[in-house]
Amino acid sequence: MDTPSSRHDGLVATALRLLETAGPEAVTARRVAQEYGASTMAVYSEFGSLGALVDAVVLRGFGALQAELMSVGPTDDPITDIWRLALTYAGFAARHPHLYAAMYGASAPGGHRRTGDDLLLGFDAFRAYADYCARAIEAGRLRPADPLEVALDLWTAVHGRIMLDQSGLLGAVGTVVGADPARAFETLMVGLGDDRDLVRASVRAATGA
């Protein structure tokens, strides 16, 4: 039986599948309802608007991202952990490009682009960076600073790289000047106070090299 709870979850799952397999243009009330096996009214009676359904999809995406980031787990080297966290974050974006773009307001599924306070929905995923940066500061690997500010520096670099990669620009430029993510990470960590040789050792430890 189609209960309110199961209908809510089913519509979210359907919209998420359409987003991931067919792109943001496929996420319309009519298409979601048709794929789910209900009338268009089901979307509006359950969520009130298509935008609210998109927000529910995004919330599920952030939940999945947060779970992957939390699965990284700490080691005795906080810089290794930050590198692994960045790789996990980038890996999620690579596997779910349409979802990632919707999560961060870079696309507009069904014409609904998240802006303003809506973008704070993913703050918990960002906070994972801050927790790891705080450990690196406490260990003396990074200079004393507000962990949230350091995390913002890191997230800006990782997110910017992901968006350039998804647009194809990073690959095009990389054929000319090179685009090694480990080198970029090394430069950022040194700028934040770490020793270059220590960063390189931490990156090698993350990959078992």
UniProtKB/TrEMBL annotation:
Q: Which residues bind DNA?
A: 28-47
Keyword flag Thylakoid: no
Per the database record, which ranges form the HTH tetR-type domain?
5-65
List the transmembrane segments: none
- Tell me which Pfam families the record gives: TetR_C_33, TetR_N
**What keywords does the record list, in alphabetical order?**
DNA-binding, Transcription, Transcription regulation
Its recorded name reads: TetR family transcriptional regulator
Species name for this entry? Nocardioides aromaticivorans
